[in-house]
Design a protein that fits this description.
single chain, mainly alpha, 13 helices, 0% strand, globular, DNA_alkylation, DNA alkylation repair protein, ARM-type_fold
């Protein structure tokens, strides 16, 4: 498929209702409003052509950018391309899902996560926290820097309530990821979850809710899934 063919397919799959839903969640034009499930049906065609996947992201169309993230091979991404993707992402779905998922599975996961987490740009900072959280979810514990993650938990404990809006959301998610995926830090994550309590995030005109970290971790524990890693964080 050519770029033009894919864009025509996306336009045909889009709906005004889905478009308005994405806009309420923060999406910025241009976009057609394609459901994620429909985007996934196109992955098998796009992933055969990695140049096409990257070209889709460069269109700036939100649907095309998400499809690019589903289709690109993270192992082939350069640090420069990942940085470019982060810079071009203009709303939370791309910084926290598209770019973060690809970055987490790339050879530059930790390097970029650490750099982005310290950014003065809120979207880039959320991308960093999400990248690190995703990396935790797919990486064996013996390959993780447990001391660094413990320090990050303590940072969250002392700063989360004074952080920027979406950064608070991803810090809370980081606590959940740590408690769910790292057995050695499960108890520490629970302690931090109790310390931070309810995290308030402005989610705009949506029905989204911020999960309470301890309760969420306990649900995972009840299913016997603590420490069970995911095969991929790209979704």
């Amino acid at each position: 498929m050519t770029l033009e063919e894919v864009m025509r397919r996306l336009e045909a799959l889009g709906s005004e209702q889905t478009k308005q839903t994405f806009i309420r969640h923060g999406a910025i034009e241009p976009l057609y409003g394609v459901k994620i499930g429909d985007l996934k049906k196109l992955v098998k065609d796009v992933k055969k052509d990695q140049n096409l996947a990257r070209a889709l992201y460069d269109t700036g169309n939100s649907d095309a950018m998400y499809l690019a993230g589903l289709s690109v091979n993270p192992r082939t991404m350069t640090k420069e391309t990942l940085q470019d993707w982060a810079n071009k992402a203009n709303w939370s779905m791309h910084t926290e899902t598209t770019v973060a998922g690809v970055a987490a599975e790339s050879p530059f996961a930790l390097e970029l996560a650490r750099e982005w987490m310290d950014s003065s740009d809120e979207l880039i900072a959320t991308c960093g926290w999400s990248t690190y959280g995703n990396y935790i979810s797919i990486t064996p514990d013996e390959q993780l820097d447990i001391d660094e993650i413990r320090r990050l938990l303590r940072q969250i404990e002392t700063t989360i309530h004074t952080e920027r809006n979406r950064v608070r959301y991803k810090m809370n998610a980081f606590v959940i990821a740590t408690g769910a995926y790292i057995r050695a830090l499960h108890d520490e994550a629970i302690r931090v979850a109790d310390a931070i309590g309810k995290v308030h995030v402005n989610v705009g005109p949506t029905a989204c809710k911020v999960p309470e970290a301890r309760a969420y971790i306990e649900k995972i524990d009840a299913r016997g899934k603590i420490g069970v890693k995911k095969k991929t964080c790209i979704c």
